[in-house]
Specification:
heterodimer, A: TIM Barrel, eight-stranded parallel β-barrel, four-stranded antiparallel sheet, 14 strands, B: Elongation Factor Tu (Ef-tu), domain 3, Rossmann fold, 2 domains, seven-stranded antiparallel sheet, six-stranded mixed sheet, binds flavin-adenine dinucleotide, binds flavin mononucleotide, binds FE2/S2 (inorganic) cluster
């Protein structure tokens, strides 16, 4: 057990946003992880992008799912009551295309969950599609405004695309963030040589991004808030490396696409590693 | 859960299509369902590959696979006695109705229809089987199909018949069937949809999958105005309801 943000978690292994739906299918897994981060929730329902939405790349994949989700209203009415029966902590991953969306979603959900993760990697429609998390001022305003709507833990998920995560993390913490999670997927593209145009443009994840993810987590050491590290974690050893690099907990993403039970294996392996190395 | 199974038998039907048989007892498998197959124990290729059930009898599961890329090539290199890691079954199984059925297979699309035929045969449901390929040599399991189907028609675009599978449908009185099941390349399904057959047609659909089990929203098909999961809501959908251009 560990305590972060004043909350007791079963263990340090969480499930990252977008790879496990709402945790209602493999409940045995949901009930054994420290926390579940939901698929990104937007103000209005989103139907998502046309196929193909995933493309395998070297030791990983690019996804272009397009934040398909039922929208905050239906999420609160139909999904949240079911999620709240799970024996784990629930963090809602909040996504928006305008600054005000984040605070509205946080406000609508209220106290029904254990906390929020603000996904500021989303394109900001009013600023020509540049991600909120790329601009320190905009990132800070998203956080500050969401902060006024909740007392629950507010985690900010960083996008290390074209910006220094340390700089953004500092302003987010100053604006009231309780923790930082990173890394979200990296920009990636696959080219269609036949048609001489991109075949898919989306977010790169999986073991291919692990070294960069570790570097980013390590760079955020000493900020004084819990860091949730993720990016290419496949084994207990990987998870242990993130903890050594300064993360308080880790989240499992793409590994679940290869095996929905991967988090359970990682929990077991991490326990063994930690025991062997005299940590807990 | 990842199941570790041993390859008991391997057979090359053509120079690009092979079968792997593994022992996997006590499962209740339905046509339309598939397994997610690991191609490698390393992280490259990273994702599992969806492969349909081609036959399941006495605990022996047969997968029939066509080499089309890196992952299927690696599976083709596996030898008898080696382990195979598979997850599943996934996908919504078909509930078979006692209706006079027409099975329409294009190319490797024959794989899941073989299992459908096996089940129908077991339940004494009458069916005809139309099966088309590009080159004559690519027709597999012909005698088996002829044995269990009431009528079987085999055609090859570059063979004696010089006919596509959809061309072969002209030879049949479609209205005499109650229902049809089709599996083949998406181009075939699109053309089939345009034919607007007078009976319900159920299509086995394909996409590149992520998880294969409804978690990642990485697969999508526009069906009756909304995106559905191929892996979980399908892979079989009524052809009429599919919008292939979205
Ligand atoms: C439910 C289901 C059941 C199936 N059953 C069978 C079966 O029984 N037998 C069988 O042989 N096959 C079956 N398939 C198809 C099979 O899964 C694919 O042929 C296989 O995954 C290809 O893997 P690969 O590594 O060989 O090819 P890959 O190298 O992954 O791909 C082949 C080609 O497609 C391109 N490509 C790859 N990903 C994408 C993408 N996302 N978008 C666009 N182009 C892409 C590649 O560039 C390459 O040229 C089934 C598929 C589904 C969805
Ligand atoms: C299919 C897929 C969907 C994802 N959806 C979301 C999402 O909705 N919101 C979000 O913040 N991150 C999303 N992510 C990013 C993951 O939560 C995670 O940050 C990233 O994939 C890196 O971890 P990994 O390499 O272990 O996958 C998604 C990732 C994948 C692969
Ligand atoms: S492949 Fe993940 S939901 Fe279908």
């Amino acid at each position: 057990m560990i305590k972060l943000f004043g909350i007791i978690f079963k263990n340090r292994v969480f499930i990252a946003s977008g790879v496990f739906g709402f945790g209602l299918k493999y409940k045995r897994v949901s009930n054994q992880v420290g926390a579940i981060f939901t698929k990104g929730i937007t103000l209005e329902p989103r139907k998502g992008n046309p196929p193909p939405r995933v493309f395998e790349t070297a030791s990983g994949l690019i996804n272009w799912v397009g934040l398909e989700n039922p929208g905050v209203e239906k999420f609160c009415e139909e999904i949240l009551p079911k999620m709240n029966k799970l024996h784990t902590k629930i963090f809602v991953n909040v996504a928006g295309s305008e600054v005000v969306h984040y605070e509205r979603i946080v406000e609508r959900i209220g106290e029904q969950v254990d906390g929020f993760e603000l996904n500021i990697s989303c394109p900001n429609v009013k600023e020509g599609g540049v991600a909120f998390g790329q601009d320190p001022k905009i990132a800070a305003s998203v956080v500050a405004r969401a902060r006024t709507k909740t007392k629950l833990p507010l985690i900010v998920k960083l996008t290390p695309n074209f910006c220094d995560p340390l700089k953004i993390a500092r302003v987010c913490i100053a604006a009231g963030a309780d923790g930082i999670s990173l890394i979200n997927t990296l920009h990636g593209m696959v080219y269609d040589t036949g048609r001489k145009r991109p075949l898919i443009t989306g977010g790169l994840s999986g073991p291919a991004i692990k070294p960069f993810a570790l570097y980013c987590v390590n760079r955020l050491q000493g900020l004084g808030v819990p860091i949730i590290g993720m990016g290419g974690i496949m084994t207990g050893q990987d998870a242990y490396e993130f903890l050594l690099a300064g993360a308080s907990a880790v989240a499992i993403g793409s590994a679940i696409l290869r095996d929905p039970y991967a988090p359970l294996k990682i929990i077991r392996e991490l326990k063994k590693m930690s025991n062997k190395n005299g940590n807990s | 859960m990842v199941r570790r199974v041993t390859i008991k038998k391997k057979q090359w039907f053509t120079d690009e299509i092979f079968g792997l048989e593994v022992h996997l007892p006590n499962l209740d498998l339905q046509p339309g369902q598939f397994f997610q197959v690991r191609t490698s124990t390393t992280y490259d290729p990273f994702l599992n590959r969806p492969i349909s059930i081609a036959s399941y009898k006495g605990g022996r599961l047969l997968l029939i696979i066509k080499v089309v890329g890196r992952g299927t090539k690696m599976l083709g290199q596996k030898k008898v006695g080696e382990d195979l890691q598979i997850l599943g079954p996934f996908g919504k199984g078909l509930k078979l109705k006692k209706k006079k059925s027409l099975l329409i297979a294009g190319g490797i699309g024959v794989a899941p229809l073989l299992f459908l035929a096996q089940k129908m045969y077991g339940k004494r449901i009458e069916f005809d089987f139309v099966y088309g390929v590009k080159k004559e040599q690519a027709l597999i399991k012909k005698s088996h199909i002829s044995q269990i189907a009431r009528h079987a028609i085999f055609v090859a675009e570059q063979g004696r018949s010089k006919m596509t599978v959809l061309g072969a449908l002209d030879m049949l009185d479609i209205a005499s069937y109650d229902i049809a099941y089709a599996c083949g390349p998406t181009t075939m399904l699109i053309e089939l949809q345009k034919l607007n057959l007078p009976i319900p047609v159920y299509a086995f659909c394909e996409d590149f999958l992520g998880c294969g089990c409804g978690l990642c929203l990485g697969c999508a098909i526009m069906y009756k105005g909304e995106y559905k999961r191929i892996c979980e809501d399908g892979p079989v959908f009524e052809l009429k309801g599919i919008s292939f251009d979205e």
